[in-house]
Amino acid sequence: MATILQATKLSKSYGTKILFKDLDLNINQGDKVALIAPNGTGKSSLLKIIAGKDSTDINANGEPGSIQIFSTNGIAFLEQEPNFDLDNSVFEEVYTGDNELSRTTAQYERAILSGNPNELEKAIAHMDRVDGWQYELKIKQILSSLNIPDLNQKMNQLSGGQKKRVALAKMMINQSDFIVLDEPTNHLDLETIEYLEEYLKRGKMSILMVTHDRYFLDRVCNKIIELDRGEIFTYNGNYSYFLEKKRERIEIFNIETERAKNLYKTELDWMRRMPQARATKAKYRINAFYDLQERAHQKIDQKEVQIDTFTARLGSKIINCKNVSHNYGSIITLNNFTYNFAKGEKIGLVGPNGVGKSTFLEIITSSLKPSSGTIDLGETVVFGFYRQNGLSFNEGDTVIDAVRDIAEVVTMSDGSTINVSQILSRFLFPHSMHNTKIGKLSGGEKRRLYLVTVLMKNPNFLILDEPTNDLDIMTLNILEEYLENFAGCAIIVSHDRYFLDKTVDHLFIFEGDGVIKDFVGKYSEYRDYIKQSTKEAENNSQNSNQKRDSYNSQKEIKQKLTYKEKIELAHLEEEIEALQKEKSSLEAALSNSSEFNSDQLTEISNKYSILLEDLDNKEFRWLELSEKN
Q1: Would residue 532 count as lying in a domain?
Q2: Whether residue 126 sits in one domain with residue 60
C-alpha cells in the first residue's frame, strides 16, 4: 500500500526534558491511526511537528528530522485548541480555501449575502464554469450537520464548543486525504461526536489522531501506535487488542530482562577474573558485556495514578430539591425540578451544549441562587467540584505550591495520612517535578494536578464537569475504577460515552426549556432507546399516512364539507397545479441565468418569492379543508 506519511529521526526536547528522540513513523494510505501515550510525553508536540506547526530538533549529527507527506491536497490539522482571528466572522473562517473551487464558492456566498444582482449574476456564471454546485451543496450539508451558528457572527461571540465545530467545518471542507486530529471530541456534544465518528469512519482519508474517547477510537481507527519512553510501538487492531498486546510486550520485555540479569552475573564474574593481558582475545566478549550490562538494568515499570483518598462520612440527608426553577431573562434553564439525592448514586448529565447543565451544577452546590423553589443541603455534605474551566493556577507557582495551598497532609481511605509529596507521587508527579513551574506542564499534567487539588479535600459528593478533557487514557481508567468504588454521590458531565457507561447508573436528560428527565441505565442504553423510539415514531407516522390516504380515497373528508367548501377545494386543486407549473418555469429560468440581464433576473427573483408565498397559503388552505371533520 502507498505511503502517505514518512517521518524519520524526529526529536523534541524542552530544556533537559527529552520527549522523544530519533523517532521513525510511517503511515499508509487508508490507515486510521490512534496515537496513545501518557500526558507530558509529547503527543501534541509530535502532531504539531508532522502538521508543520512546529519544528523537530537538530540531532547529534547536526541534521533535523525528515518529514515527507505524499498527499495530493496537503494535510488538514485540527488542533486541540484551534486558533482563530476573533475579529473574523464565521463566514470568513469557514470559507478560507486557497483553491479555485473554494474561492468561487466563497464569492457566490458573498454575492447572495450582498443582495447585489450584478454580483450574483457573475458569481452564478463562475459557479457554472467550475461546476461548483455539488461542492456548494457539500459545504451546506457540513454546516447543517455540525449546527454551525449564523455565518455573520463574530468568532469572539462563540462558545468553546461552537468554535470547535467551526474548526471541524474548515477541516471537512478542505477535503484533504490526510487528516491530523488532536483531541477532536473535546468540547463537542454527543450528537456532534457521533456525526464526526461516522464521517471519519466512512471516509477514505488517512488519519492520525490523539483521542481519549475509547468508543471513538475503537470505531474509527484500525491501527494504534504507542509512544512509550521515546519509542514507537505499532499495534494493528483496536483498543482492546492494544491493551492485550501491550501487556504481552511488557511481560516479554521483563522476562528477557531477568534472563539478561542472570547472564550479567556470570559475565561480571568473568570480567573480574579476566587478566588484562587477554584483552585482545576477549575484546568481543568485553564489548558484549557492556551491552548486556545496559540491557540487564532495563525494566518496564508501569507507573499508574493511585487514587485512594478518604471519603468523608455522608449522612442520610444529602441534597433535597423541591420545585427548583431558574432563568436568565426569557431563557429557562431549570423548570420546577424536584429530586432527593440518595447515598451512593452516580448520575450522568446529558444534553446539548448550552442547555443548562453547568448552571444546574452551580445551583445545587449553592454557588448560584435559584429563581424559585428550595434546596435543602445536608450538614455532612462535602463537595469536590472539578470544574470544566477550573484551571486557575498561578503559572509561576511550583507543582508542590499548588497542593500546599490546600493542605500539608492528606487522609487516605484507611484513615492513615500522607504528606503532599507522597500524594503528588501517587498522581505521577515524581519528586524531580515538585519544583517545576506550573506554566511548564502540559495541558494533561495541569488537569491531573487540578484533580489532585479536588480529591485531597476528601469530598463525599463529587461533581465532575468534563473531567475527561486532556486526561490521558491511562489516568481515565484509574479514575473510572475510583468512581466505581466511591462511597459518596457523584454527578458527572461528560461527552465521553465510554466514561459515562463505566461510571454512572442513571442519567438526567436535559431536553431544553428547563425540562430534565430521569433515565435509569447507561448512556449506550439511552442511545438504543432513542433509536428505537425514533424508529417506532417513523413507523407510526407511515401507518398514519397510509390510513389518511385510504381515508382520502374514500372521500370521507369531502363528504363532511359544505357545498361552498367543496367548490373552494376543487378550485384550489386547479390553482395549486397551475402555480406548481409556473414555479417550475421560474426555477428553470433562474438556472439559466446567463440568458437574462440583471434587471430581468431581479424581476424573476421577486416574482418567484411572491409565487412561493401564494403557493404556501393555498396549500395550507387545501390541507385545512381536506382534514376537516
Answers
A1: no
A2: no
User: By the 8 A CB rule, do 133 and 127 touch?
Assistant: yes
Let me know the angle formed at the C-alpha of 112 by 108 and 118, rounded to the nearest 5 degrees: 80
Q: In this structure, is the dihedral angle defined by the CA atoms of residues 432, 243, 224 and 306, taken in order, positive or negative?
A: negative
| Secondary structure string (H, E, C) spanning 45-74 | HHHHHHCCCCCCCECCCCCECEEEECCCCC
What lies within 8 Å, CB to CB, of 522 at 6+ separation is 500, 501, 504, 505
4 neighbors 21 (Cβ within 8 angstroms): no
Could you tell me whether strands 506-512 and 515-520 are parallel, antiparallel, or unpaired per DSSP bridges? antiparallel
Q: How far apart are the first and last CA of the chain?
A: 67
In a domain, 28, yes or no: yes
Residue 394 CB neighbours (<10 A): 12
Q: Which helix (H) or strand (E) holds 7?
A: strand 3-14
Give the model's pLDDT for residue 536.
Answer: 80
* Residues in CB range of 489: below 8 A, 6 or more apart: 314, 318, 341, 342, 343, 344, 345, 346, 347, 460, 461, 462
Q: What residues contact residue 332 under an 8 Å CB cut-off, 6+ apart?
A: 325, 326, 513, 514
Measuring CA to CA, which residue among 517, 518, 522, 492 is closest to residue 505? 522
Do residues 156 and 180 both lie within one domain?
no
Secondary structure letter of residue 627 according to DSSP: T
Residue 59 and residue 102 in one domain: no
Residue 109: name the closest of 119, 100, 98 by CA. Answer: 119
pLDDT number for residue 299: 60
In a domain, 545, yes or no: no
Which residues have CB under 8 Å from 314's CB, separation 6+? 343, 378, 380, 381, 460, 461, 487, 488, 489
Rounded distance between C-alpha atoms, residue 444 and residue 442, angstroms: 5
Distance CA 400, CA 424 (A): 8
547472564: which residue's cell?
263
Name the nearest CA neighbour of 361 among 351, 349, 372, 371.
Answer: 349
For the entire predicted model, the pTM comes to 0.72
**CA distance linking residue 217 with residue 225, whole number of Å:** 12
Alpha carbons 257 and 266: distance in angstroms, whole number? 15
Enclosing domain of residue 336: 319-521
Look-up of cell digits 510486550: 249
Same domain, 342 and 205: no
Task: Say if CB 182 and CB 443 are below 8 A apart.
Answer: no
**Residue 547 belongs to some domain of the structure:** no
**Angstrom distance (rounded) from CA 515 to CA 338:** 11
- Note whether 338 and 462 are same-domain residues: yes
Check whether residue 368 and residue 451 sit in a common domain.
yes
pLDDT value, residue 382? 93
Q: Are residue 66 and residue 208 in the same domain, yes or no?
A: yes
Count of the separate structural domains present in the chain: 5
* Residues in Cβ contact with 119 at an 8 Å cutoff, skipping those fewer than 6 apart: 110, 111
114 and 142 co-located in one domain: yes
CATH number (domain holding residue 382): 3.40.50.300
Q: What is the mean pLDDT of each run of 10 residues along the chain (629 residues)?
A: 90 84 91 90 91 87 86 87 86 79 84 81 87 83 84 85 89 89 89 91 92 91 88 88 85 76 70 59 65 65 69 87 92 94 93 87 93 93 89 88 88 84 87 90 88 90 89 86 90 92 94 93 90 80 63 49 70 83 77 67 73 80 71
